[in-house]
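Technical annex B. To support the medicinal chemistry partners, we prepared a structural model of the target in complex with 2-acetamido-2-deoxy-beta-D-glucopyranose, based solely on the information shown next.
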Amino acid sequence: MSEFSYFALFILILIWSTLPFGGLKAPEPTRCSSPPTSPANIPKGSCWPKLDVVFMKTHKTASSTLLNILLRFGQKYNLKFAFPSGYNDFNYPSFFKRSLVHNYQPGDCFNIICNHMRFSYSEVHSLVTPNATFITVLRDPAHLFESSFHYFGMVVPFTWRLTGPDKLAKFLQDPDHYYDPKGFNAHYLRNLLFFDLGYDSGLDPRSPQVEAHILEVEQRFHLVMLQEYFDESLVLLKELLCWELEDIVYFKLNARRASTVPRLTGELYRRATAWNQLDALLYRHFNASFWHKVEAFGRERMAREVASLRRENERMERICIDGEHAVDAKDIEKPSLQPWQAMGAKTILGYNLKKHISHQYSQLCRKMVTPEIQYMTELGVNLWVTKLWWYIRKFLQI
Ligand SMILES: *[C@@H]1O[C@H](CO)[C@@H](O)[C@H](O)[C@H]1NC(C)=O
Ligand SMILES: *[C@@H]1O[C@H](CO)[C@@H](O)[C@H](O)[C@H]1NC(C)=O
């Protein structure tokens, strides 16, 4: 792409990001007044499945896969989602406000909130029952940074100055030289987890606020999952929410082609960790507490449950997926199964369904492979801004 098209793109993004979609109403002081009604006759022996879930969807952490799980669960029990309006996030990177929820009326109460947002506890909490379960996903910040750099780099103008074949390495050699904390979209390239969770991602790592924020996350979230141990995380989630195995089966969504994922090792890994020091502290804390939870759950029991989840995923793969694995965007036959791509390279994989799937599984298979945008559209969300952007990109071939 030429300098000019970068510039044109930048202007487009700028205009787009300043349009006041959905943000016009002032926040209302009222709380969620009555809990949404639970469906009757829920099957389960010793506990009742929990239906009220807030998923703080972080970026580049396998969160699209979890989103798919939550959308399916919500459909299964006919739950009420708090969706954004116009596009598929809550006016990110601005803070979440309840007035951003599609068709929000004061006093409204929802079962599930699961789209990208910059977290605001009080605003989110006002929309769900006091007993709602809060969950989120973290990932090793060095790898998260790498992923974010490749996925979002193009929409962070100060990276356009980077030259050479390995922009990431160049950046990490002297991040302070390139990074502009006030730059457009700068938040994507430093301590993105801290930012998404609603904190100042430019804090001095030695500030006592850092520890205070980390403890606050621990207080507010009932489960902090880890991308690296996604299956173990899902087993803990299933236990916490009293769900069934069928509720957590999944196919990996929004993953990159393996050959396009550079492994950050040695010096670069060290630099990326140091550059994202707040996230590193956060991750270290929750990596430790995660393993305490696994310990409490029982190591052997965990191994058994993970094995049965993987068996079930593989069984579903054999039932649903043509060729039994993910394919490049260009090989996905149906537009309805085409995932959203980062700008530049089409590296995000998707799926083709088998031609003949028995009636019993056809719905489930289709849901499991449906990307976020299409799934939300199916659930009645009007994503006109996202779609418009999709067409503009298609037209400009970016
Ligand atoms: C919240 O949970 C407590 C104990 O688990 C229960 O007694 C209470 O009824 C629940 N409240 C709501 C609004 O569901
Ligand atoms: C997370 O904790 C595990 C178990 O203690 C440890 O082996 C691993 O190195 C930790 N990961 C990171 C990135 O700190």
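Notes passed to the chemistry partners:
Residues 299-320 form the longest helix (22 residues).
The pocket of 2-acetamido-2-deoxy-beta-D-glucopyranose (ligand 2) is lined by residues 140, 284, 287, 291 (CB under 6 Å).
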